[in-house]
Design a protein that fits this description.
InterPro entries: GP_PDE_dom, PLC-like_Pdiesterase_TIM-brl. This is Glycerophosphoryl diester phosphodiesterase. The protein is an alpha/beta fold. Helices cover 32% and strands 16% of the residues. The chain has one domain: Phosphatidylinositol (PI) phosphodiesterase (TIM Barrel). The protein has an 8-stranded parallel barrel, surrounded by 6 helices. Helix 4 links the parallel strand 4 and strand 5. The relative contact order is 0.16.
């Protein structure tokens, strides 16, 4: 299914969305360390370019929501961004390292972990630096030796975007690297867009998937896996498992792994 082996024992693999972001501040070492310790099969991050060309793990265009600073990521240097604290806003912000996290540091953290974990990197668009974001991501993955896997099943990295053009740039430059075309409409994901750009998986929201469960079979018919975001509730985890979704992104990786291990037993019993 070109994101790996799909699901172990019929269960989806669990991706920690921005780390264990329900319990720790998103995109921090603290969040990813907890996710890895809780057994996440993969971790997801959003990346943006600083003014001096560094890839940092920040979701929003501005740092206002997730730090004690203010301003556009693209307007500031790495050193300026590193002056802010990225944990004080979150209830779990007092635990662990909550400073600025670079993609370089996250890749090293994941590759150094004591078991294989996939890294899902989402590039944000539209952005000031355009295609340079994908070029920088690929260069970084090449430096770590994970941009040209022998097969998709063996890949340690996956690149994702809501931008079809961004996915196409990755597929053209690194054809063996798995990609996910993200979207929140079934027509976009189930039609020709994923085929045109060569995406190896599609990524609907859980709301879209509930409205259009046929997306799983349509993706499989095209040789693609399905990655669903953001799956936080037991009913949604169970729904994805029953449909045969390959990967679920969640803010609660430990809890989600436990629910899947217990099969049909939910938080309130069978």
């Amino acid at each position: 299914m070109n994101l790996g082996d799909g699901a172990l024992g019929g269960h989806p693999f669990v991706v920690a969305h921005r780390g264990a972001s329900a319990d720790r501040p998103e995109h921090t070492v603290a969040a990813y360390d907890l996710a890895l310790r809780e057994g996440a099969d993969g971790v997801e991050c959003d990346v943006r370019l600083t003014r001096d060309g560094h890839l940092v793990c920040v979701h929003d265009r501005k740092v206002d929501r997730t730090s004690d600073g203010t301003g556009l990521v693209s307007d500031m240097t790495l050193a300026q961004l590193a002056e802010f604290d990225y944990g004080g806003w979150h209830p779990g912000g007092g635990t662990g390292d909550t400073g600025l996290l670079t993609l370089e540091a996250l890749v090293s953290m994941v590759l150094d972990w004591n078991r294989p974990v996939k890294l899902f990197v989402e590039t944000k668009h539209p952005v000031r630096y355009g295609a340079l974001v994908e070029s920088k991501v690929l260069a970084l993955l090449h430096r770590h030796g994970i941009a040209s896997p022998a097969s998709a099943d063996l890949s340690r990295a996956v690149v994702m975007s809501f931008s079809a053009a961004a996915v196409w740039r990755i597929r053209r430059a690194a054809p063996m690297l798995p990609t996910v075309l993200l979207g929140d409409t079934s027509r976009y994901l189930g039609g020709s867009a994923a085929t045109t750009v060569g995406a190896t998986a599609v990524g609907p929201s859980i709301a879209t998937l509930r409205e259009h469960p046929e997306l799983v079979d349509r993706a499989a018919a095209g040789g693609r896996a399905l990655y669903c975001w953001t799956v936080d509730h037991y009913e949604d985890v169970s729904y994805c498992r029953d449909l045969g979704v390959a990967w679920v992104a969640t803010n609660h990786p430990g809890r989600t792994k436990e629910w899947l291990r217990n099969g049909a037993v939910g938080p309130d019993g069978p």
